[in-house]
Specification:
The structure is a single chain. With about 210 residues, the protein is mainly alpha-helical. It is about 55% helix and about 5% strand. The chain has one domain (about 25-30, about 55-200): Four Helix Bundle (Hemerythrin (Met), subunit A). It has helices at about 25-45, 50, 65-80, 85-90, 95-110, 135-155, 160, 180-205, and strands spanning about 165-170, 175-180. The protein is flat.
């Protein structure tokens, strides 16, 4: 768009609104997540339950499943960063990693780790518990997850980011990762599934076109 006074084109400007936190690095990650969420919700505006539940074929994820999975993963990994799933913490809680995960997710999201249906079995249909969910239902779920993790991100210090955290998975496998890697993983995980969601929207629009 040209300026009437100078005839020059106006330059578009982009930036991130970074909140204040103990670690600027962690605050930047939160700002990136917030902007990815803004863009995702903007791209999904007007989506109907039929599209949210649509499966290209059995065994494949739906958009609704991916949205629920995004919310679950955010909450889960920030609790990993807080040391809630170390072998010692699991032992103190009774020794069952699956129970520990459920005890954290349900109060925040009202669902457990497997309720998004991922990973979906071969030739499986989407989980019944997500049937009838609207875009507003998923928007609220994602909002609950972000409200839960935002203060935890802003409370991290630069020293915290280098801290190594052990975790025990539900299958019993144990591993160690830094808090910095956890933040990276949450961001790249969100962006990867965002791309998958856009692909599913494209496939849904083209499903009835002649091949």
């Amino acid at each position: 768009m040209a300026s009437r006074k100078t005839g020059k084109k106006k330059l578009l400007s982009h930036d991130l609104d970074v909140p204040r936190g103990h670690s600027h690095e962690a605050a930047v990650v939160l700002a990136m997540l917030d902007d990815q969420s803004r863009l995702l919700l903007q791209d999904l505006k007007g989506i109907k339950p039929a599209e949210l539940e649509w499966q290209p074929k059995r065994g494949m994820n739906t958009i609704g499943m991916l949205l629920a999975h995004l919310a679950i993963v955010e909450v889960y990994w920030l609790e990993v960063a807080a040391g809630r799933f170390t072998p010692a913490a699991i032992k103190r809680g009774g020794g069952d990693a699956g129970d520990a995960v459920q005890a954290i997710l349900w109060p925040v999201l009202g669902m457990g780790f497997s309720d998004a249906g991922l990973p979906l079995g071969k030739n499986a249909l989407p989980p019944r518990n997500l049937q009838g969910w609207t875009f507003d239902d998923y928007r609220k779920l994602l909002g609950h997850a972000r409200l839960h993790i935002a203060p935890r991100l802003l409370d991290l210090s630069d020293k915290d980011l280098a801290r190594k955290v052990a975790r025990r998975r539900v299958n019993g496998e144990e591993m160690t990762q830094s808090v910095r890697w956890i933040l990276y993983h949450v961001l790249e995980h969100f962006s990867g599934h965002y791309g998958q969601i856009l692909m599913l929207r494209h496939m849904y629009r083209d499903r009835k076109k002649a091949r």
